[in-house]
Design brief:
single chain; 396 residues; alpha/beta; FAD/NAD(P)-binding domain; D-Amino Acid Oxidase, Chain A, domain 2; 2 domains; eight-stranded mixed beta sheet; seven-stranded mixed beta sheet; 12 helices
């Protein structure tokens, strides 16, 4: 494909946020170019891929206007339907609550979203790296050669190390960003509950974070962890922590002891919320590039796609002369901003406890299963807040 010299909107990154933004911009009349550096969309896998049911998302984000393909997608994109989530404390006590959703095949889902955008008229260029963003000019190189392309608006959906964000002064300053370093294995021949998500805590296995087992079928799972490096033991790598969890955890070790490891996935997850600005006069950022992550669980697909819809609609309105692009910053915050900010506040409250297994056990004992579910989705019940603050004060 040889791109045109000019588009109304250029979207950098064809993950769920970028494809959603591209689709809605095109649906509202803009010419759109969607760029992605991968040679195959959705590969390598970027996350464990759990997507709550749309009814659960809407109940917990009542102000959000859900994009269509957050609610409707083919069964071929689903690896496993989920009914339950379990939280396992450092002392191995277990609490669980009902949750409806699906573990997705991210490769198929990402490709499905990009295909829907293309059906709406979006032009797609894969295996194409953006090398420079200056003003509204984008320079690219890749399988289609080198190109210089101009747009009226640029949407950066290019991940936590976003070039668009850096080029536009929208990224966090050095030292300001808080991240989990994540490592995951796709494992077969495991003895798991196929309809249950599991999250594990404990400093010996996951300092400053949590480990997970997400089923991908009857005997298949995504097994991984996200940790804060600054809280880890000196000289112990993320891989060593994950292997320790798989081999030595009293509960998980039994489930995974006969596992066959087929794939390794690594990445970073930003968990300190969005920067103060996510838009300029000619560009905006969305998804991981904008910190659209629920910090309590690292979940990014729903907020990224909700904000992606806002991004595409706002960009198209801007191109048509109907608004300033900076309106995007206000619009997405109305829909999901409070949930993201509250999840960051919860994470910071938990940071004071997570360094001590004794305190973490006390905190998880305090919180009921229903309250856990609410907290996972970026809300903090008053009684839980009071209790966590009291435990933190006892620590001091």
């Amino acid at each position: 494909m040889i791109p045109k010299d000019y588009y109304d909107v250029i979207v950098v990154g064809a993950g769920p946020a970028g494809s959603t933004a591209a689709l809605y911009a095109a649906e509202h009349g803009s010419s759109v170019l969607l760029l992605d550096k991968k040679k195959e969309l959705g590969s390598p896998i970027q996350c464990a891929g759990f997507l709550p049911d749309a009814s659960e998302i809407q109940a917990l984000l009542p102000d959000a206007k859900l994009p269509n393909y957050l609610k409707n997608y083919p069964c071929s994109c689903v690896l496993q339907r989920i009914k339950t989530q379990r939280i396992i404390s450092p002392n191995c006590s277990v609490k669980e609550f009902a949750v409806r959703g699906a573990v997705l095949d991210r490769r198929r889902y990402d490709q499905f979203l990009a295909e829907q955008a293309a059906k709406e008229g979006v032009e797609l260029m894969i295996k194409t790296c953006v090398t420079k963003v200056e003003g509204t000019t984008v320079e690219t190189k890749g399988i289609y050669g080198k190109h210089v392309i101009i747009a009226k608006a640029i949407i950066g959906a290019d991940g936590p190390n976003s070039l668009v964000a850096k080029s536009k002064g929208l990224s966090f300053k050095p030292g300001e960003r808080e991240t989990y370093v994540a490592l995951e294995y796709q494992v077969r021949n495991v003895d798991i509950d196929p309809d249950s998500l599991e999250m594990y805590f404990g400093n010996n296995f996951v300092p400053g974070g949590y480990a997970w087992i997400f089923p991908e079928g009857e005997d298949r799972a995504n097994v991984g962890l996200g940790i804060r490096i600054r809280m880890a033991e000196k000289g112990v790598s993320v891989k060593e922590y994950l292997n320790r969890f798989i081999q030595d955890h009293p509960i998980a070790g039994q489930k995974l002891k006969n596992g066959v490891f087929l794939n390794v996935i690594a990445g970073i997850i930003p968990v300190n919320g969005a920067p103060k600005r996510t838009a300029t006069e000619d560009s905006l950022i969305v998804g991981d590039a904008a910190g659209h992550i629920i910090a309590t669980n690292g979940g990014g697909i729903p907020p990224a796609m909700i904000a992606g819809k806002v991004a595409g609609e706002t960009a198209a309105e801007f191109v048509a002369g109907g608004c300033r692009l900076e309106e995007y910053d206000h619009r997405w915050r109305i829909q999901i901003g409070n949930a993201i900010e509250t999840s960051v506040h919860i994470r910071r409250l938990m940071d004071g406890l997570i360094k001590s297994d004794t305190l973490m056990n006390a905190a998880l004992k305090l919180i009921s299963p229903d309250q856990m579910k609410i907290m996972q989705c970026g809300k903090l019940p008053d009684l839980v807040k009071i209790g966590l603050q009291a435990i933190n004060r006892r620590q001091k």
